[in-house]
Amino acid sequence: MIDAVVVDIEGTTSPTAAVREDLYGYTRERLPEWLAENSSAAAAPVLDATRELAGRPYADPAEVAAILRGWLDTDVKAEPLKTAQGVICAEGFRSGALHGEFFPDVPPALAAWHAAGLALYVYSSGSVRNQQDWFAFARGGSLSGLISGYFDLSTAGGKREPSSYDKIAGAIGAPAGRILFLSDHPDELDAAVAAGWRVVGLARPGEPNPPRPPHHWVDTFADINPADQV
Fold it and tell me: What is the mean pLDDT of the chain?
C-alpha cells in the first residue's frame, strides 16, 4: 500500500527546457538589478551565502551576480541561488510573465491520485517558493490544491542523499515503504531506495537523463498506478 506520492519537477512533471529556459532565463536577466537594489534587505542573505560558498568574502553585488549567473549556467544546486530565484520569479508568476508548465499526462494523474486519497508532495532542488508558484500558476489552471507539501534543499537536503528522504518521510509521517517517489534522475532514485522508499523512474522522450537499472521506468504518469507498488 502507498500512502503518499512525492514528485520531482524538472524532467518528471515538467519539461526540463521550461524550467531552464523560462525560470533560469528570467532569473539570469534580473539578478544584477535585484542584488543591487536589495543588497541591504532581502538580498543580504543571498549575498552573504554566495560569498561564503564561492570563497569571495569581499565580492560586491555585481561580482555576486556574476557568480550566481555562472551557477545558473552550469546548473549548480546552490541554496543562495535557489533563494534568489524564488524571490525574483515570484514577481514573474504574479505578473503573468511566467507559468508552471506540465506534461499533459501529469494534471489528470495527480487529480486521480488525490481523489483516491493519496497525499501528494513535491521535492525539487528549486526553492519551496518556486515550487508553490509553479503549481499555483500552472498553465491551464492551478494544481496547488492537490499538493499537501513541498520540500527543497534547505528543508530536506540534497536529492542524492538517503538522509534527505528519511527527513521527508518523518515530516510526512508515513513509513518509508509506503512512500512512492517519481523522478527522472537515477541517482535520486538510488537515494530514495536506500532510504526504503518505493520508486518509479520517468524516461520521457527528449529529456536529458537516460534510464538506468534496476529501477522500473515509464514515459508517462498514465502508466503509473500507485496501488501496484507493493
Answer: 95
